[in-house]
Structures are given as structure tokens and as C-alpha cells.
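User: Here's a structure from my thesis project, written as C-alpha cells. My advisor, Dr. K., wants to see whether a designed sequence matches the one we expressed. Can you design one independently, without my sequence as a hint?
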């Protein structure tokens, strides 16, 4: 039996929007939207459609879309655009695509520690384990579903430039 996560999902989405907006400079207007990814049959082929995600059930795929607008008449440098990944979801590996800006390719970085640190996959963390009666420290790979944030560092955002970033998660 699947549980319906309408209120939890909506609350999580509102918190997510609040986090994204809190991280933005007043010089940047952010718009974060959530869409449910639905597969439908159309002319003998399966296509994906995006529907507003007002609620979600476990196993459903949600696509977050962050649109950022530089509201200034001058460029902004080193702009960090962040999409937090709600704890009721798991990041879908390789769904946060690089952003092409002219000759520059901006590759997303990820965090597994609540946005304290970021890196490019594969991310590693150190764990203390007991082996042969001794405590040792081991480095293990962090799974994509453990990611808590995705971030793109934009080298320069031109005046009035709009950028759109997306990533997908699976509802737990």
C-alpha cells in the first residue's frame, strides 16, 4: 500500500523554496518549481510530460527547475546557484546536467553534508570502522541518493541574463 505524501511533500517544497531564496543575493531573482515526471504513450512511443507537483507518492520522479535572473545592469561574478535536495527524496544520478555558457561548461558540484562542503562525483567520506578489534578510518564513496545539495558556480552572469538549471529526485 502506497502512502500519499501530499502535505509532507508540499511542506518540503515550501522549505526548499525558502532555502533557495535565502541563498540568493537580492541582485538575483530566483524561481524554483517542482514538476512530477509522467510517462505517457503518444503516437506509439513513450514520452515524458511535466506536471506541476503539488503532491507526490513514493517512487515518483520529481524534476526541480531553478530559474535565476540577474536583475542588475552590470555583470555578477562567481554566482553560486544551489538546489537543496529534500530529505524525503533521493537525488537521481546524473540528472543535474552541466550548463554551457559560451565556451565554458559549468559542471554541478554536490554536497552530502547539508551544504557545508561540495565536490564533483565521486564524493568520498571517511568512516570509522572496527576491523580485527581495532578502530580504523576508511574512505567510502557517497551514493548519489545521499546528496543533500547540488550547486553550479557561474563564473559570470551578464546583466538581465536568465539561466535555468534542473535536477531530478525520486520520492522516498
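Assistant: Designed independently from the structure alone:
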Amino acid at each position: 500500500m502506497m502512502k500519499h505524501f501530499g502535505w509532507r511533500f508540499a511542506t518540503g517544497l515550501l522549505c526548499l523554496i525558502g532555502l533557495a531564496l535565502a541563498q540568493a543575493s537580492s541582485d538575483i531573482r530566483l524561481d524554483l518549481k517542482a514538476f512530477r515526471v509522467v510517462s505517457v504513450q503518444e503516437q506509439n512511443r513513450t514520452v515524458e510530460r511535466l506536471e506541476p507537483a503539488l503532491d507526490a507518492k513514493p517512487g515518483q520522479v520529481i524534476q526541480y527547475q531553478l530559474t535565476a535572473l540577474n536583475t542588475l545592469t552590470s555583470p555578477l561574478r562567481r554566482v553560486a546557484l544551489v538546489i537543496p535536495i529534500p530529505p524525503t527524496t533521493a537525488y537521481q544520478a546524473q540528472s543535474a546536467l552541466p550548463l554551457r555558457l559560451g565556451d565554458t561548461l559549468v559542471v554541478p558540484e554536490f554536497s552530502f553534508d547539508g551544504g557545508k562542503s561540495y565536490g564533483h562525483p565521486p564524493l568520498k567520506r571517511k568512516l570509522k570502522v572496527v576491523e580485527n578489534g581495532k578502530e580504523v578510518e576508511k574512505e567510502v564513496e557517497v551514493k548519489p541518493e545521499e546528496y543533500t545539495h547540488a550547486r553550479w558556480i557561474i563564473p559570470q552572469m551578464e546583466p538581465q541574463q536568465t539561466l535555468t538549471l534542473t535536477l531530478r529526485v525520486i520520492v522516498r
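When you compare it with your expressed construct, this may help: DSSP finds one helix and twelve strands in the chain.
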